[in-house]
Amino acid sequence: MRVAVVGATGYQGGAVARLLSERNHRIRTLTRRPDGDRPPLPDLEFVAGDLADAEDVRLLFAGATHASVTMPLVYEPERVRRYALNIAQAALEAGVARFVYNANTRIPKDPTRLPAFETRRIAEEVFRSAGLPLVVLRPPVYLDNLFSPWNGPALVNDGVLAYPLPATTPTAWLSHRDLARATLAALTGQGLEGRTFDIGGARALTGDELAQAFSQGLGRAVRYLPLLPEEFERSLARLLGPATAAGVSGIYHHMATAADPLLMDGDGGLSLGELGLRPAPVDEWVTRQPWQVWSNNTEEQNAGA
User: Fold this and answer.
1) Which end of the chain, N or C, is surrounded by fewer C-beta atoms within 10 Å?
2) CB atoms < 10 A from the CB of 81, how many?
3) Domain, as residue range, for 229
């Protein structure tokens, strides 16, 4: 395949690009920073440009046979609509055989006032109305969020798993790798056009159950600490700016209201099973991560060196 990957320089799109590269598919992505950091993938070609520029997006899709799209962390409705229209038109002109859209989150059935959901709904509606050979993936929350400078040190050194979801909320945590596997399956599977998959892990876990899985994987006691969404948003704003932080944290503000407590719930792996996949259990995922990078001992050794 020759795949136009929107978002290949990000975490989710990057996981998709890595898997496609491993399978020897050719990949092209768009970047606004042609001299910035790039994933070291031999089959990844970069096009300098912006999703807001229709000509740039056409260059991205020139010669593409397939498309994988993850929208950037932009939460302005009209800007997202413009991005989506440019992508849809370019994909139609290229005549892609399959167009996979990762909505980045589950989307509530009824409209909300939260850009975190509604901008993703806008993009999906644009792609669907364009008549593309569309498959939609709606993941829940990513395990990889927990292997980060915000969570790793507290997990490894203090046994604290802090996250802005209520402790009682069942969540079908999914890894970026399993998202990539689902994307590849959606790109290549037969008879999937028009389908929407609320993908997720094999089973949903509450906060305490998630902590237990981490205890098994890390070999030490771990307890779950639910963060207030406001606290999470303030921390995120220092890294991403207030607008992006407000957009991202909207998901967690919504979940904190308990208005839709099963939004991130699992289906026993049914959706991934329809794509021919079996997600890895959480404790197995935990075991495979190099958690030592977050340990105090490593920091002390580095300081001594």
Assistant:
1) C
2) 15
3) 145-170+202-267+278-296
